[in-house]
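Hi there,

I know you've been waiting on this one. I reran it after we fixed the sequence typo, so this is the corrected version. Both the input and the resulting structure follow.
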Amino acid sequence: MIEIPVYLFTGFLESGKTSFIQDALEGDDFNAGERTLLLLCEEGIEEYDTERFNRPNVFIEVIERESDLTPSHLEALQKKHDVERVIIEYNGMWSLDSIYATMPEAWLAYQETMFADATTFLSYNQNMRQLVFDKLKSAELVVFNRCKRDGSMDKMEFHKIVRAANRRSQILYEYAKDDVEVDDIEDPLPFDVEADSFTVGDDAFAEWYRDINEEQNKYDGKIITIKGRCVTGGELPDDKFIFGRHVMTCCVEDIQFAGLACKWENTASTLEHGGWVTITAEIKIEYDEIYGEEGPVLHCMKVEKAEEAHPEVAQF
């Protein structure tokens, strides 16, 4: 199977996606002759000037409705133009799951970049938080354009919104076409993961849970003390329970229980289902049937009843 690299550009209308793609296709470093399918999932004020493209090898197709994103339709467009790669200018009002769930098998996401107008981003985030989070959560690069150097822009405010959704994305602030600044704000974790033993506070659970899932190996062998709820019963053996908390990522509608496998030599089934506990445990990265693969397993040394955490629902 021939792999088709996909370059996905997301962001809301008039956020700068078209300008960036136009500039990229005008240069020989990004447009060296590859047959390219350019999918337009929204059409703003600015239009593409195909005569300025470095090579006449770009085939533009418009996707008018989110429901048109189907594997068969996308594959048909690929074969129609016999393309070697795909560039997608995505509609900011559509869920990213729609495109990722419908990409043909041969299509592989090579890069995902989000563009945002710094003058309107905070308003979008306040009024359409779930859509903003959807575009930030998997972006490898976030570009804030139309930034100002007059002191009216607090970069930390933008930085925190991005980091609440994605700790790994690179952030750029664009003040003018040739005036770009890389975000270099450090994000220290609110606990000392370098220590052999550390405590995670109630307000740091969400960050810890995300970090241990993203970089689990650095936690192998560490001793942790942390508060959460226990899930028992069902098909779990007597020496196992699930430890975790409800986590809100961006809004009330997406609250879900985030848990990890726990082993306890005492009878885990005697714990209150849903009850709050503080555990001290050694983290081991090992295979567990609950995951069906290797993952972080908390080997409890101590389990004590506790008052509920504050806040009760963990947040980033």
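Quick highlight: The CA atoms of residues 163 and 169 lie 8 Å apart.

Best,
R. S.
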